[in-house]
User: Which sequence fits this backbone?
């Protein structure tokens, strides 16, 4: 779990320094990135690349997000105050989930691809992260049965923001989401103020598309 060679703590620390240089300022996020074994969240054949600042394939047409993007989205999500309840749409490899679970009291995560969800569940159990609830479901629908969320993070890009996710935010709740077609995507922070939603552009990004249905 600690890693050796290209997955060692020294390699992780170099990644953290790169993220700091690229503009990530929140030391809580940087500490979690440093302490999270990203190499456990991908196939062993490419684990030597785990601490490169790049997205990598995890199968089923999905990727594990670039560490900078994980850090950027997490930093935006917890700015000002730590949300108590966070919904993650798109569990994927489970890496973003692991980062969130070390900062947030209660994490709820939804994944449409069953094999990815089960693999992520096993990996997160290895890290003894027990504050996560899992759902095999359609991310477009969110997880309304668990109530409202202080924050929602989406790890794939819909063309437009799903209204169901906006509805599941608490008042003053925050949504961090990439939107738009491939090649022209924006990372947005959306804050709810009653029935009004204030949007703020965070970055230009490239994500796999958010799809409806379950597999």
Assistant:
């Amino acid at each position: 779990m600690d890693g050796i060679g290209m997955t060692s703590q020294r390699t992780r620390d170099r990644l953290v320094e790169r993220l700091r240089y690229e503009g990530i300022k929140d030391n809580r996020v940087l500490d979690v990135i440093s302490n999270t074994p990203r190499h456990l969240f991908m196939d062993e054949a490419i684990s030597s690349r785990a601490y490169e600042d790049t997205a990598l394939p995890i199968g089923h047409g999905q990727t594990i997000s670039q560490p900078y993007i994980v850090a950027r989205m997490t930093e935006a999500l917890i700015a000002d105050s730590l949300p108590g309840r966070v919904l993650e749409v798109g569990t994927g490899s489970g890496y973003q989930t692991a980062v969130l679970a070390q900062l947030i009291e209660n994490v709820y995560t939804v994944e449409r691809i069953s094999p990815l969800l089960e693999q992520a569940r096993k990996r997160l159990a290895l890290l003894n992260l027990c504050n996560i609830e899992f759902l095999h479901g359609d991310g477009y629908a969110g997880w309304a049965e668990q109530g409202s969320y202080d924050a929602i993070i989406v790890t794939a890009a819909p063309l437009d923001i799903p209204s169901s996710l906006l509805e599941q935010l608490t008042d003053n709740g925050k949504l961090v989401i990439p939107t738009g077609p491939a090649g022209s995507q924006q990372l947005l922070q959306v804050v709810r103020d009653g029935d009004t939603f204030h949007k703020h552009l965070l970055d230009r990004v490239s994500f796999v598309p958010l799809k409806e249905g379950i597999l």
Notes: The two ends are 30 Å apart (CA to CA). DSSP finds six helices and nine strands in the chain. Helices lie at 9-21, 27-35, 67-78, 95-101, 114-126, 163-167. The longest strand covers residues 169-179.
